[in-house]
Amino acid sequence: MPKMKTKSGAKKRFKLTATGKVKAAQAGKQHGMIKRTNKQIRNQRGTTTLAPQDAKAIRKFLPNG
Question: What's the pLDDT score for residue 2?
Answer without folding.
Answer: 85
